[in-house]
Amino acid sequence: MKRWIGTGMVFLLLVTAVMIPAATAADQGVSAVTAASRLIQQKQEAVNRKDRAAFLAVLNPADPIYIKEQSRWFEDAVRWIEPGSYRLRLISAIPAGEHQLRAWVEQSYCKDGSRHRVRFPLLLQETETGLKDSDYPFYHLTHDDVLVRFTDESQREQAVIIQEAAIKALAEFRRQLGWKPEGRVEIKIYREPEVFRHSVKLSLPRWAGGWFESGQSIKLVGADSYPDRRLLSSTVIHELTHRMVSEQSGDNAAYWLQEGAAEYYQSHLVPGLRQKRERESNRPRWTLRQLEGIDLESLPSDDAADYYRQCEQLFRFMRERFGQTTMQRLWISLELYPTIDRDGADKLKILNKRTREALKKVTGYRLEQLEREWLDWMKKEKSD
């Protein structure tokens, strides 16, 4: 994950009654508002009842990536929010294309006694089994290897920059590491940080500005302006590195190793994007055992920045100490373990154990020896 802070906006819309231009609804004489309202109500009730099957049933079966994203969103929501507090209210529904509706909704929930709200559009698609939730009605840029979706026409320039950066990064990953992604890379850019957070998962910290999880799209918070084009490019490379590590390791790398690789490659992979490192302390803030146990998403923003920095330092040491070939052997060793289809925080201990075992198998190092040599390496870097 990466960080970005932005502002939100409020949409004021009126409910419009029209007919759905599709046989299923039209034959029954059901208005767009009625059909959309029923779908939205079903989704709300499924969350409050914690009924996973009913929740997934409202999603468009033609979009497996969105289903995977929403499945993880549901798992998080039913644990995070106050029971029975989820609300999804239809504001409007208008035709958006053949057998499609553009619905505006207000999503809200209670947490710690406060209600949190956000408004955004949804694309509703008429299918053989009825009207289905089909994700945000994105604009898009297409390419053989990279598909970029964005929520606002004003983001088109950013979308072009992000697509170009992703294409260059994929070429470098293939040249340097021999990695080519399994299928096309899909990137979603959200103009509003709160819509991004609500789209990923409700428990996501507000400092987060990027996201990738196995089987999902890369999600990013856009911005009205970036003072440095390189920052925008390095952010997407960070998340693309997560996909690389996930696919090469069977999604079995420890969190600290994933974030260390992402921080390293975002500024070292593509020529011209290398960033000047901040001055580093002589000793890390946490021991490696402590680093293993940290839940990144629970950290305040300043602590999260320290976590990212320490993970990058450690990965850089490992790459210099063992070499890129050995690091790739580490990914391959981790890939031998079965993949666990759960949120990263839910499998933290298991991935730590697997990473320690793979590290010992590939390098001969136990975690304690790795830490000792890392500290010596940092001291030497300071004296150079």
Q: Would you mind describing this structure in some detail?
A:
The protein is α+β, with helices and mostly antiparallel strands. The chain has 13 helices and 9 strands. Strands 5-6-7-9-8 form a 5-stranded mixed beta sheet.
Characteristics:
9 strands; 384 residues; 4-stranded antiparallel β-sheet; alpha+beta
The counted number of beta strands is 9
Low-confidence stretches: 2-29
* Element pattern in H and E: HHHHEEEEEEHEHEEHHHHHHH
**In one word, what is the shape?**
globular
Order the strands across the largest sheet as they lie in space.
Answer: 5-6-7-9-8
Short description:
With 384 residues, this protein is an alpha+beta fold. Helices cover 47% and strands 16% of the residues. It has a 5-stranded mixed beta sheet.
Would you spell out the secondary-structure blueprint of this structure?
Blueprint: H1 23-27, H2 32-48, H3 52-56, H4 64-80, E1 87-97, E2 100-111, E3 114-127, E4 130-133, E5 139-141, E6 146-150, H5 156-177, E7 185-190, H6 193-200, E8 210-211, E9 218-221, H7 229-249, H8 255-268, H9 288-293, H10 301-322, H11 324-335, H12 348-363, H13 367-383
Parallel strand pairs: 6-7, 7-9
Antiparallel strand pairs: 1-2, 2-3, 3-4, 5-6, 8-9
